[in-house]
Design brief:
- The complex is a heterodimer.
- Chain A is built from 22 helices and 23 strands.
- By secondary structure, chain A is α+β, with helices and mostly antiparallel strands.
- In chain A, helix 10 packs antiparallel against helix 22 and helix 15 packs across helix 19.
- Chain B is mostly helical.
- Chain B has 14 helices and three strands.
- Chain B has a three-stranded antiparallel β-sheet, covered by helices on one side.
- Chain B is globular and about 55 Å long.
- The chains are: A alpha+beta, B mainly alpha.
- At the A-B interface, helix 1, helix 2 and helix 7 of A face helix 7, helix 10, helix 12 and helix 13 of B.
Chain lengths: 638, 370
């Protein structure tokens, strides 16, 4: 027994040693293989590789693709490309940047803003191979530099690059967005998505608007060339090439002319206007004022313009349509009416007597009309915009019922529009307060707070896009659509056009009859109510609702007198509308910051937009701006 | 005076007692070559070399500690180490951080940590312990279970995806099974089965998956992405010639044609500057390293020690072969560092601990002779 075990052990050990031997042979063979490979590369093919390395004979040059165009719904080009010459410095080949720039300045005009921009680019993109010191060189400058190129020993070169160009300058700037250089953060994201190779040779990327949210569609596919180059890095001849493939063209749902009409109706005022097609959720106009000129960003933004944009109290870079949140004021009342009907708290003929205030817990909630509106039923409550009526509705319903009803219309939630940076706004509820505040006494919901919710004040705070989505839902009879800016995507390689389907979110659980009633009441607003003046003589039917949102609180017993309030603390003017009433083709929401009464500032803008969209009528004295064609037409890059 | 000197000498003796000098000389030579290549590759950031020296110091200390631990004690760590490693891999799959498109990292307090690295040693430890425990009655089902112990973590790492580490972990585990005596017939059968299953698998794949595999096999298909590394690193190796361009004179490295030149592609820098002769020295050192490891395995007293030592020795081999093969363009590009040369503390730590294991086995070879 013992000896058998020993024998077994010895056999095992023998087998193990055998396998160690086999492993040793495998190791030797594998390393032998490597040695053979090294011999092949370093002895047999040495001359070839040495030559390739010595003068870096073959360099792979990426060919960046042509970025896709952006067009409006009628095919008007809103973003395109042009090719231009830039003068670029290779920072790593230069001993002193300042001296090199001084030397260039002897040949070609370099302005202080060019230097400032160059320094900014250098700080932002430390690993860049080359950075532009001057852009948009003219032919004379190109020729002048070419003759003196040898002086810089390959550290300064002229490059042909494609630039983005926006023919309408500031128009629709918040829809289009802007481009900027690929920074560290962008680079990391591209690497994470595994597409960084496709961005070699590309140095700018969409930073906001459609340029950012459809970046992947617009970009295209980078091609490459194998180029034979000399020791100084100059190309001698192309050995092989794979052409780049242009990016997809984006067709917007936006009507550029309507957009222009809306923007000029805004004038210098601040605010937002958004028009939707109620049957699809397509965005027809999208105004956030003030805007900016996206052309200024294209070849590296001038630091001075950048700081102007960032430090202006008007915040031109801020997209008010999706990132601005405003109290809806009285534009909230039609939805409150629906909530009351659906909850059975009010009927069409429920009347109150409005003394001009509502008293609750020893506090007087004032009506905007001193002395009140007398006897008010549901229809009249919307037409004359009775505050007292809705103080009572809110009080009767309670905050939980209001919050859960308003959720159906998308209040306080992102609409999911195809742009980045949308905020949620605030749909107030006791749960929201618990989340929002830290101290227990702040977290408590007071019944008095419910009352101002009824007239769209208090903690209510919604984005203009939410207001527009909600009124579009009313207009189409109760279907919530996700708003979208893009109608189709064209693939220029295959000629294929992909339409983006309208996205239905859900149907609001409200009886069609009630919606019809509220629409009639809103039509009454524009016929005989607070919107009547702005819509006097309109050749179409329309429904609307004015709103005035307080920016500062008015103390008990104090009176709001506009002329005494500083401009920035004046009320916001709001208006929501749809038209024609029978089968609405357009729904819109307008906010004029510090514009005062809704009927005065916002409603006339709505009138102008509807006149144009439904009748093709331009406001007096206005002609539509056309693109300024000062630069040459787009060229193919490959 | 006399009294004071005696304990000093004893302490010195105690310090070097467990250290296998042959192994140490080989490893230190490799590390020195690595520092030289790293210095050349780090002209833009010399602090890297200082970092690597610190990494080396830490790794050496870890090696010394492990070398003091007798194999019997190591056996006690096998199961817990494997279980923890596996649990962490599952945690990574569920809640890991994504870096460069792969989910490999786990957040631990302020730092991130890569559990797959730990599996490189935990798996052979586990398998060696498992086969040791069932030493007297090894049957086919033991090998099946061993295969499972190997397959689960490998599959998890493959899913991250981390092809390089999966290959290393899988190979190291396979070595244990191989040395434990799995029959040639079973191995042959498995190989045939694997080869046969490739064809239906290929048919099931999407076009983009096929394309990815083809690019892996032939990087020149994608000269802007994966292929760029290989084209440039092959030029670097080839242009080194017989005697190399000389230290700090590599143009490919210094003109930044070699990406990842501190880590996975440091061999390209080395090879360009030291040529075929340098490569010969490097190959010789690796051969000696593996040979020493296999010799330690052959002399080891227990099944556990034998299996562990042999698989660690072949792990060194796999690292070196896959990395040099990849840089010189005969193997697909997977992320595997060059052992003892590539920059990076974690890989270094694993390697030195592996060396520590070998030293411990060598030192304790007589103690439990039965």
């Amino acid at each position: 027994m013992h000896s058998a075990e020993l024998r077994n052990y010895e056999r095992e050990l023998h087998q193990f040693h055998l396998r160690i031997g086999i492993a040793g042979v495998v190791v030797l063979v594998a390393f032998g293989l490597l040695a053979a490979r090294f011999f092949f590369l370093q002895v047999v093919r040495y001359d070839d590789y040495a030559a390739r390395a010595e003068d870096n004979r073959i360099s792979i040059v990426p060919v960046p693709p042509n970025r896709g165009l952006i067009l409006d719904r009628n095919g008007i080009v809103m973003a395109r490309n042009y090719s231009g010459y830039t003068l670029e410095i290779f920072p790593r080949k230069v001993a002193s940047l300042e001296r090199t720039i001084d030397e260039i300045a002897e040949l070609i005009e370099i302005q202080p803003r060019d230097r400032a921009r160059f320094r900014k680019l250098l700080a932002e993109s430390r690993n860049a191979e080359s950075l532009p010191i001057r852009t948009r060189l003219n032919d004379e400058e190109v020729a002048k530099f070419a003759a003196n190129r040898y002086r810089f020993g390959g550290a300064v070169e002229i490059k042909a690059r494609l630039f983005r160009q926006y023919p309408f300058d500031e128009i629709a700037s918040h829809v289009i967005g802007y481009m900027g250089r690929i920074n560290q953060e962008d680079q990391e994201r591209l690497e994470e998505e595994g597409v960084d190779a496709n961005y070699r040779g590309t140095d700018s990327i969409g930073k906001s608007g459609v340029e950012a949210s459809y970046q992947n569609e617009l970009h295209g596919i980078t091609g490459f060339e194998q180029v034979e180059i000399d020791a100084a890095g100059r190309g001698i001849r192309t050995l092989s090439r794979t052409p780049s493939q242009p990016g997809n063209n984006i067709g917007l749902t936006l009507d550029l002319r309507l957009q222009q009409v809306a923007e000029s109706a805004f004038g210098e005022r601040r605010g937002a206007a958004i028009a939707l097609e109620p049957s699809t959720g397509a965005v027809l106009a999208f105004v956030s004022k003030p805007g900016f000129d996206p052309n200024q960003f294209v070849d590296g933004i001038d630091p001075q313009y950048w700081s102007e944009l960032n430090n202006s109290p008007d915040r031109p870079l801020y997209n008010r349509v999706i990132a601005g949140a405003y109290p809806p004021g009285s534009t909230f009342k039609p939805y409150m009416a629906l909530a009351a009907l659906e909850a059975g708290k009010r009927r069409y003929n429920s009347t109150i007597h409005d003394p001009g205030y509502f008293e609750f817990g020893g506090r007087r909630f004032r009506d905007s009309k001193p002395g009140g509106n007398g006897v008010v039923d549901l229809y009249k409550s919307i037409v004359v915009s009775s505050d007292t009526y809705y103080y009572m509705v809110a009080n009767d319903m309670g905050i939980d019922a209001i919050a859960s009803f308003m959720k159906n219309f998308g209040f306080g939630a992102r609409t999911g529009i195809d742009l980045q940076g949308e905020v949620t706004g605030v749909l107030p509820s006791p749960e929201w307060k618990v989340k929002r505040f830290r101290r227990p006494e702040q977290q408590k919901w007071y019944p008095g707070e419910t009352i101002s919710i009824g007239i769209g004040q208090g903690y209510n705070s919604y984005t203009p896009i939410q207001l527009a989505q909600a009124v579009a839902t009313l207009a189409n009879g109760g279907m919530v659509y996700r708003p979208h800016l893009v109608a189709y995507i064209d693939n220029p390689r295959s000629g294929e056009r992909r339409y983006l389907e309208p996205a239905r979110v859900h149907r609001v659980p409200v009886r069609a009859e009630y919606i019809e009633f509220v629409r009639r009441a809103m039509a009454g607003v524009n016929k005989e109510g607070t919107g009547a003046r702005a819509f006097a003589g309109a050749q179409y039917t329309s429904g609307g609702k004015t709103g005035t949102a307080q920016v500062i609180g008015i103390k008990q017993g104090e009176k709001y007198i506009e002329s005494r309030v500083e401009e920035r603390f004046r009320d916001h003017s709001l208006f929501i509308a749809f038209a024609p009433v029978e089968s609405p083709r357009i729904a819109l929401a307008i906010v004029v910051e510090n514009g005062g009464f809704g009927a005065r500032a916002a409603a006339p803008i709505a009138r102008t937009m509807l006149d144009y969209y439904l009748l093709g009528k331009l406001p007096e004295g206005m002609s539509l701006p056309t693109p300024e064609d000062e630069v040459e037409e787009e060229k193919e890059s490959d | 005076m006399e009294l004071a000197r005696v304990p000093l000498r004893r302490i010195a003796w105690r310090l070097v007692e467990g250290i296998d000098s042959t192994l140490l000389m080989i490893i230190l030579s490799l590390s020195m070559l690595g520092l030289a290549a790293l210095f050349s590759a780090s002209y833009d950031n010399p602090a890297r070399v200082v970092n690597q020296v610190a990494n080396l110091a830490v790794a050496l200390a870890a090696m010394w500690i492990v070398a003091q631990v007798p194999p019997q004690t190591m056996m006690r760590f096998a199961l817990p180490a494997y279980a923890i490693g596996l649990a962490l891999l599952v945690a990574v799959a569920l809640a890991g951080d994504v870096v460069n498109g792969a989910r490999r990292w786990l957040h631990v307090g302020v730092t991130r940590f890569q559990p797959s690295e730990m599996m490189k040693l935990a798996l052979p430890l586990m398998l060696a312990w498992y086969f040791h425990r069932n030493e007297s009655s090894l049957r086919l089902r033991n090998f099946v279970l061993g295969g499972l112990l190997l397959a689960v973590p490998t599959a998890l790492i493959l899913r991250q995806p981390d092809l390089g580490t999966a290959a290393l972990v899988g190979a190291t585990g396979f070595f244990v099974i191989f040395f434990a005596g799995i029959s040639w017939r079973v191995m042959g059968g498995l190989a045939l089965l694997g080869a046969a299953s490739l064809f239906p698998l290929w048919n099931f794949m999407h076009d983009y998956q096929r394309k990815r595999i083809l690019t892996l096999l032939d990087p020149t298909q994608d000269p802007l992405g994966a292929g760029y590394h290989i084209i440039q690193s092959t030029i670097a190796v080839g242009s080194g010639g017989i005697s190399g361009k000389g230290w700090l004179n590599g143009t490919q490295a210094h003109l930044e044609f070699i990406p990842e030149r501190h880590t996975d592609f440091i061999f390209a820098v080395f090879s360009e500057e030291f040529g075929l002769i340098g490569n010969g020295v490097l190959l010789t050192l690796y051969t000696l390293l593996v040979a020493r490891g296999l010799m330690i395995a052959a002399n080891a007293p227990t099944i556990f020690a034998r299996l562990l030592a042999a698989s660690v020795a072949l792990m060194f081999f796999t690292y070196a072969f896959v990395n040099m093969g990849m840089v010189s363009g005969i193997l697909p590009v997977v992320g595997v560092p060059l052992p003892f040369l590539s920059y990076g503390g974690t890989a270094l730590l694993t390697l030195f601990i592996g060396a520590g294991i070998l030293m411990s086995i060598q030192r304790h070879r007589q103690l439990v002779q039965t």
